[in-house]
Backbone:
């Protein structure tokens, strides 16, 4: 999919998963993670994102700190 905002989005995307085909294509990323009951990397601070745990439970856990 071509995304007119991909280059702009890549500047803000903190996804560290190598080879992610959705990196910089926010609409695809959101749809993918939502369909798996997860949140995308951009919801997490960098240290929490690097665990690759995109679960809502993880998000709630780190939000309470």
Residues:
């Amino acid at each position: 999919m071509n995304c007119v905002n991909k280059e702009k989005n890549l500047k803000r995307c903190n996804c560290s998963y190598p080879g992610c085909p959705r990196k910089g294509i926010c609409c695809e990323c959101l749809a993918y993670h939502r369909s798996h009951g997860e949140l995308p990397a951009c919801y997490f601070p960098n240290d929490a994102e690097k665990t690759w745990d995109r679960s809502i439970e993880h998000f709630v856990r780190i939000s309470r700190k």
